[in-house]
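User: Second chain of the day. Same drill as before.
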Amino acid sequence: MSPTPSVSNCAARADAGSDADPAGPERSFLSVLPAGGATAVEAPAPKRTARLTVEDYVNGVRAGDRGVLARAITLIESSSADHQTRAQKVLQQLLPDSGRARRVGITGVPGVGKSTFIEALGCYLCDQGLKVAVLAVDPTSTRSGGSILGDKTRMEQLCRRPNAFIRPSPAGKTLGGVAKKTRETMLLCEAAGFDVIAIETVGVGQSEVTVRSMVDFFLLLLLPGAGDELQGIKKGIVEQADALLVTKADGENRLRAEQARQEYSMALHYLAPATPGWTTPVTLCSAVTGEGIPEFWQMLLRYYQELEPKGVITARRREQAIQWLHDLIREELETRFYGHEPVKSTRPAIEAALLRGELTAPQAARELLGLADPASGAADVVGPV
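Assistant: Same format as last time:
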């Protein structure tokens, strides 16, 4: 187990230590006006954060230093070309140290208690001597582009644990409930020696399935009394889950939670299991009383004990690596396409022709694609706009 880091987890925020030089003058002045007249008093110069080398990042992450880990994640998330070059060098050197953690994705509708459940589970695992990393994705406003990133405040107890690390990240424009750099962040956390990595999605409903492509085990949290058996039969997120957990099964909700568990169990009979060789269970839990938390962990251990020897986990991770590659290629091609100068200059005219009814959407698309790749002859099929 790696030594306890000297930097507190609560202080290891996403913005803790940007590698960019701070803008503005190095010194600032405050004007104070004592009784005898105006006197300029020089304020102390702000401290600069030391720029880390690739070796500093690699050694710090391997040592389990959460401050360096937080800065490495910031480097990964940066859009700077220089930062991206250095980030890939860091990832390349840390790749042999990754892949040993249990990867768990957790989703559910807003209000289901994702953060509360993760904190209860995380604290339980920390008490067992395990290191836990939580990658929490917060929704991003489509109007302002901002995110609250409040998961660390909702996991106050877990935040204080020396063997826990919580990293909130904005979803940005990435669909599927995860952040753009979640996969890279997960690899960094594995290299830092974390035993369990929990990825908490944005949680907006049936579309939160992208996390399935980056974790071994996918958990869906459900509210008691929030849906009937027909809701459980819906295709989409339910059929992707390796386990369904009805939360808030305490007090007056206990009876409704048990009823919901029975209904979802019946509904799952109509769906194929998300993972071959594994029967999707439906259980109850209460983060308030702690009921169901140890049982869930034992279920997760059984999942790995049954499927790892069969090569199911290894096969899934290989498929996920190929899918990640294809996702990155599509993303890069889209970036290059819209940044291509002939496309940028002609696109407004083609879009205007589309809106006037002079072109269909497929014709407009082929025209733009032909500009990006003249050798394909796509533009010649349609002709000039």
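The radius of gyration is 25 Å.

User: Great, on to the next one.
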